[in-house]
């Protein structure tokens, strides 16, 4: 399957790295919930070397709950107890020297070892959280709580489901802009790094959601509007990841 994924690259903004990928993941039952924000509302929370990417004059903040599975390193089988767990990330979109990518404000996962490894080897802002994800009456029910002792630091409680048939995004559309991102940027010891990612084009579905509670952005000082977010659902995506490379 990895060879098939690598053969389809025409949907990308820039080429796939020539070096071998190091990790494979499967992302399941994703909800993309996106809110428009003014650039100045998030500028101070993003490294100064990165440009905040905009669509129609707005930056966008996404809250993305999903379930990871089949996580494995290249040429190795999945590691027991670390190959499957729920996750929710908070992200925005940035550019560096013309390359568009993702910048993560936080990533919460219900796996202590995965959090440790991601922080150590990918310099990502992972946190351990208590997460429940289950299906009932056609809905995906999701509850995430990042705790410190008895205090809830960040939480997401809601349910969601797709409401349309799968479709491929059209280039230059907002759907495409929000989802077709093939690298991430992060800071480690004041150096900027890029992590390349590759997968097939997204198959999205329109979605509806009932978000009961969402304080995922509050730890970084970002307040989302009370307006309904733009929602997309994706059933499954297999992705290849490359090691971080230092940017000039």
Secondary structure elements and pairings:
Layout: H1 2-7, E1 23-37, H2 39-42, E2 51-52, E3 59-73, E4 85-96, E5 99-109, H3 112-122, E6 126-128, E7 130-136, E8 139-148, E9 151-162, E10 167-168, H4 174-179, E11 183-188, E12 191-199, E13 203-214, E14 230-241, E15 245-246
Parallel strand pairs: 5-6, 5-11
Antiparallel strand pairs: 1-3, 1-14, 2-4, 3-4, 4-5, 7-8, 8-9, 9-13, 10-13, 11-12, 12-14, 12-15, 13-14
Outline the structure in words:
The model has no long low-confidence stretch (mean pLDDT 95). This protein has a single domain (2-14, 27-246), classed as Acetoacetate decarboxylase-like, CATH 2.40.400. It has four helices and 15 strands. With 248 residues, it is mostly beta strands. The protein has helices at 2-7, 39-42, 112-122, 174-179, and strands at 23-37, 51-52, 59-73, 85-96, 99-109, 126-128, 130-136, 139-148, 151-162, 167-168, 183-188, 191-199, 203-214, 230-241, 245-246. This is DUF2071 domain-containing protein. It holds the Pfam family DUF2071. InterPro entries: ADC_dom_sf (IPR023375), DUF2071 (IPR018644).
Short structural description:
With 248 residues, the protein is mostly beta strands.
């Amino acid at each position: 399957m990895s060879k098939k994924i690598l053969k389809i690259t025409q949907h990308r903004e820039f080429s796939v790295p020539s070096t071998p990928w190091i990790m494979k993941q499967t992302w399941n039952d994703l909800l993309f919930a996106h809110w428009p924000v003014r650039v100045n509302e998030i500028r101070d929370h993003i490294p100064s070397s990165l440009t905040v990417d905009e669509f129609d004059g707005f930056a966008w903040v996404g809250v993305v709950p999903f379930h990871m599975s089949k996580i494995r390193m290249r040429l190795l089988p999945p590691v027991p107890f670390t190959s499957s767990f729920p996750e929710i990330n908070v992200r925005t979109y940035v550019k560096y020297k013309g390359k568009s990518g993702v910048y993560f404000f936080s990533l919460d996962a219900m796996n202590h070892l995965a959090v440790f490894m991601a922080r150590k080897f990918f310099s990502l802002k992972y946190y351990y959280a208590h997460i429940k994800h289950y299906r009932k009456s056609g809905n995906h029910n999701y509850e995430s709580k990042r705790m410190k002792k008895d205090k809830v630091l960040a939480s997401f409680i809601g349910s969601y489901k797709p409401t349309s048939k799968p479709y491929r995004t059209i280039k230059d559309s907002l759907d495409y802009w929000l989802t077709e991102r093939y690298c991430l940027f992060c800071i480690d010891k004041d150096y900027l790094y890029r992590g390349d990612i590759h997968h097939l084009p997204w198959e999205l579905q329109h979605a509806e959601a009932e978000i009961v509670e969402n304080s995922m952005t509050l730890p970084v000082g970002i307040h989302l509007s009370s307006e309904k977010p733009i929602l997309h659902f994706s059933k499954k995506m297999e992705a290849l990841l490359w090691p971080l490379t230092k940017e000039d």
